[in-house]
Amino acid sequence: MTQTRVLFVDDQKNVLEGLRRMLRKFRDEWEMEFVTCGREALDAMAANPFDVIVSDMKMPEMNGAQLLKRISEKYPGTVRIILSGHSDIELVLQSVGYAHQYLAKPCEPETLQQTVKNSIGLRELLACEELHEKIAQIDSLPSPPETYNRLVAALQSEKSSVQDIAGIISHDVGMTAKILQMINSAFFGLPAHVESIRQAVSLLGLDAVRGLALTCGVFEQFDDPGVEGISFESIYTHSTAVGVGGQKIAGEIGLNKRLIEDTMMAGTLHDTGKLILLTQFRSEYCEAIALAQEKSLPLHKAEQRILGVSHAEIGAHLLSLWGLPDSIIETAALHHSPMRAPAIVPSVLTAIYIANVMEHEQSNGGNGQEVLQLDMDYLAGIGIANRIQELRELCPTEIT
Amino acid sequence: MAESLTLADVINEGKKNFSIVLVDDDTAVLDVINKVLSKNGYLCRVAGDGDEALNLIAESQCDLIITDIRMPKCDGLHLARAINKSNRQAKIIFMTGYAKSQNIAETVECRPVGFLEKPFQPQNLLRLVDSAFDDWQASHEQEKYNTILSDAVIKKTKQITTQDERLIAEREMLEGILSHSYFGVIAVDTELTIALLSKCALMLLGRNDLDPYKCYGKKIADVFIDEHCLSILSLHSKVLYDGRLHGATYRDTSGRWIELTAYPIVGKDNIKNIVFIVADYTERRKTEENVRHLAMIGEQAGEGIAMTDLDYTITFVNPVWRKDHGYGIDDELVGQPLKLFHSAEQWEAEILPIVEEVRQSDYHAGKVSHTRGDGSQFLTETRVTLLRDDQAVPCGFIWFAIDITERERQAEEQRELESQMQHSKRLEAVGSLAAGIAHEINTPIQFVGDNTHFLADAFKSLETLIDCYDKMWQAIKAGQDIATLEEQKAQAEKEADLEYHKEEVPQAIEQTLEGVSRVSKIVRAMRDFSHQGQGEKSLADINKMLESTLTVARNELKYVSDVETVFDPGLPEIDCYQSDLNQVFLNILVNAAHAIAEVVGDSPQEKGKITITTGHDDDNVMITIADTGCGIPQAVQGRVYEHFFTTKEVGKGTGQGLSISRKIVVEKHGGTLNFESEEGEGTTFFITLPISSPSADETIKEPVFGE
To answer: Radius of gyration (Cα) for chain B, nearest Å?
Structure first.
């Protein structure tokens, strides 16, 4: 097993030494280096690039945001994490484009370990470094111009409520992902679990959302790239339908309230990878679609043949880089192959998996791709094989 | 009269026919007056009391009586009434040393021609006597006319009626009235032809140049000037119209107020004549006006007014007093005790001392609570003044009371608001630093936590090693060969990472303790910064306060500036408001940091410098805070102490820092706050604080500005 190379940057020597001692127990997994300023960090990167950089925010000469900006330009594959004692929203806004995740000082060793681990964990799934670099460079996901404009108008209006803003965001894959990235960063000192976009918006506060959207441009409008057979709109429509259906199924298969809430967001985000493919890998994606039609393959299998991985892994990788909750990442990664889940139990993944297949059954007709089939072994493993018909009836037949 | 006589002789001759009776029980007074009058050609007879005087009058004609009022047996008033009753024509002048209002009223009823208050100047008496003499002479003239008039009337009457003695008697009476009345009388017929006119009327209406008798038969308009004619005509037509009495008052061109009253004299079926009574209304009007003004003051004053006599019985209350105390306009308060507005205890404990004070010093002002009719209480500002009569003898109290409940409540609110404002300013100062302070705390907590985790792991490894040593020790005791254990020991030590731990553990402990002390220092500084001596002055070491402030502001400063402190080790402690001064230091330091950041940027290659110096002389402690920042532009140097003046971008400063700082240093501590600034070079603030602090009212109020 290759060691993960992690670089720590902090102008406080005591902090570096504390980290060095505490993380010594990971010395088998991680190869670590500790430097005291941005210049040294860039030198160390030049000597031998690191997989992950964990940097303090406020440092003399070159602050964390400035450092990470240069790293992202020069070493796009490096996962960039901020570890700061500042909870100043302005600093977050400064670095929001360059940092994948934020950690607040004081930070528990487990959190730090988990964050580093997660951020590189899915990298092994990706076939090539280029893929990873491209994904690591993404700082926002495309939103259709009309959604974007609606959000901007709503944010500029004094009359808008949290409900209004959350309503717009929660129907958009890109915005949902970005808001969850922000809210899950420990930087804000917010509770670890966020149930809904509405709660997220209200926790962040409308001012912060306004700042993120209008000043930092974390939401990006992007005209539909016009690939035949797939569009932003079809992805959003499908994702929302899967979210709604998944939530109903989640209730039926006995998930707790918290997981039922997660299911909606997991549904919205399960096809994040498709958005990435459409915008970052347009030609490969066109190829895959053609291949799927030609060979009558499910799309994800065609993607695998062309890119080595499917939209599922690609999406999950970005969500993981952005530090979204495990259940959402797992769902995105395994929504075509639930059997690969570490435990075969009723989960968010189960609900989305079923909802996704059923939604495809209803909407996917004549584009030549193979219709997805439910994996009966998996359902049997969970003990719901006999309830398929009943669950099928829960799924929405028409999404407006 | 002989041609050879002088005018004075003629007058003096007349004076001898003018008979004066002097009445006083004080012979000395009689003497003096007699001398004065004789010297001026008058002849006097003297009497010791009223009875004597009446005897003298009965003996022979008397034209003027000058009498004291208070005399034994028959006093002046009795005398005057007796004279008036007997229908004698003697005029009366009163003298008195005891002019009480009631007295005056009674004397006025006697219609004296003069009133002298003792002591009086002889010429005043003389003036009165002279004018009485003039009148007397005039009326002698008039009598002649009267006789002519009455003759004519009698003749006429005799032509019309055969024998009506009563009419004659009435005519006589009318003549009497005409010649002696102080009112003027005019009688006209329906055509405004004058049928009767008294000299007094001519005088009052500005025609004393005319002979009244010659006016008989003339039209009103031929006699009187327009202003009077108009009034007379107007009343005349009113009376003719409704046959009732009408009156008018007006001011003539000479400034005199004239009162005209007109009434009809009705014959068998219709109005025959109209009589006008003319009176000089000027004096009465003045009095009435005074009374009216006084009444207006009482009724309409914005504060409660009450008067009491010396026994605190209410003699007057105004409407405001009634309203404030919850009484209606009909509630009888006059005659009630003032105690009504106070509880028995308060009366004894609070009010009586106040009135005692007023009796001594005439005046008291203060806050007193009053009780309303319904028993509720309200706070007033009350002023009490001692009332004195004409003789300066205390005769009562006047109480002014303003309900200040609302005023007090507003003042209280204002005070509360101000204290809240000040508190929130301080919180704001701390709050603006909170993020920085959080960082200052979070950082050491990070490495304290990391090191502690490391120490926990290290201890586990060492524990395993100790177990291993223990086993080896047992083996040695059991006689096992040491050589075979050597290798085992080395292996165990390697596993436990002994060398590493030996090196790292002491450092980890040291750094942990350092972190803990850093956190405690910050926490202590924060407490010192915002809580020490809040609200009151206390002795404090300015050096220590600057250290605390530096600790609190460290995160704001350290990325942009090095800080050098040059502290005077012998700096005396001064009595001051510590948290306020800390706020001043903080304001200046944060400004300095911002000014330096303007020059070097947020994450600079080369930092700026802040130098803090303290020193003292016999009277003052001096603090200088110098920065190498951007400086204050010449153009705005005069404005930096203005409230809300700021050149910083929105969100960086509210523009209140220096204005509040100056207030704190100058007004609260009697110190000075100045600065020197060179654009592009930096700014130096100079603070001086007096070692012996002035009391609040001595503090300097004038502004101190830097150039």
So the answer is: 52
Query: Is residue A162 very low, low, confident or very high in pLDDT (cuts 50, 70, 90)?
Result: confident
Q: How many residues would you count in chain B?
A: 707
How many angstroms separate the CA atoms of B355 and B366, rounded?
12
Domain of B222 in residue numbering reads as 181-286
Residues of chain B with pLDDT under 70: 1-13, 87-88, 99-105, 141-168, 171-172, 175-177, 179-181, 419, 421-432, 530-535, 642-656, 693-707
- CATH code of residue B355: 3.30.450.20
pLDDT in tens, B261-307: 888 888 777 888 888 888 888 888 888 888 888 888 878 888 889 99
> Are residues B428 and B469 located together in one domain of the fold?
yes
What is the Cα–Cα distance from B215 to B219, expressed in whole angstroms?
8
Question: Which of A76, A111, A59, A80 is CA-nearest to residue A6?
Answer: A80
Q: Is B432 on the interface with A (CB under 8 A)?
A: no
Contacts of residue A302, Cβ cutoff 8 Å, sequence gap at least 6: A288, A289, A291, A292, A295, A369
User: CA A382 → CA A339, A348, A350, A356, A391, distances in Å?
Assistant: 10, 13, 9, 17, 14
Q: Does residue B667 lie within any of the structural domains?
A: yes
Q: Tell if the CB–CB gap between B603 and A66 is shorter than 8 Å.
A: yes
Residue contact A106–B602, C-beta within 8 A:
no
Q: Is there a contact between B239 and B144 (Cβ–Cβ < 8 Å)?
A: no
Task: Tell whether B579 and B661 lie within a shared domain.
Answer: yes
Phi, psi for A364 (deg, rounded to 5)? -85, 110
Chain B 605-644, CB below 8 Å of chain A: which residues?
605, 607
Assigned domain for B109 exists: yes
Same domain, B247 and B268: yes
> Same domain, yes or no, for B275 and B322?
no
Do residues B267 and B321 share a domain? no
CB contact (8 A) between residue B447 and residue A15: yes
Q: Which of B257, B286, B315 is a domain's end point?
A: B286
> What number is the ipTM of this complex?
0.72
A130/B contact by beta carbon, under 8 A: no
Check whether residue B525 and residue B542 sit in a common domain.
Answer: no
In the numeric block, the tokens 């006025």 are attached to: B108
**Cβ atoms of residues A300 and A310 within 8 Å:** yes
Helix (H, G, I), strand (E, B) or coil at B373: coil
B380 and B410 in a single domain? The answer is no
Q: Which domains does chain A have, with CATH numbers?
A: 4-125 (3.40.50.2300), 145-221 (no CATH), 232-392 (1.10.3210.10)
Domain boundary among B348, B367, B398: B398
B559 & B691 share domain: yes
B1 part of a folded domain: no
**Which residues in chain A touch residue B434, judged by CB atoms under 8 angstroms apart?**
none
Q: Is residue B170 part of a domain?
A: no
pLDDT tens, residue by residue, A281-298: 888 888 888 888 888 888
* Residue B515 forms contact with A (CB below 8 Å): yes
Q: How many CB pairs under 8 A join A and B?
A: 87
Q: Residue B348 carries which DSSP code?
A: I
Among A21, A85, A87, beta carbon nearest to B451: A21
Residue B233 exposure: Cα atoms within 13 Å on the Cβ side: 12
DSSP string, B530-545: HHTTTTS-EEE-HHHH
- Beta B314-317 vs B363-371: how paired, if at all? unpaired
The CA distance from A152 to A159, in Å, is: 13
Residue with tokens 């502004």, as numbered in its chain: B703
Going by C-alpha positions, the residue among B220, B206, B198 that lies closest to residue B255 is B206
Nearest CA in chain B to A103: B446
User: Which of B439, B451, B515 has its CB closest to that of A85?
Assistant: B439
Domain count, chain B: 5
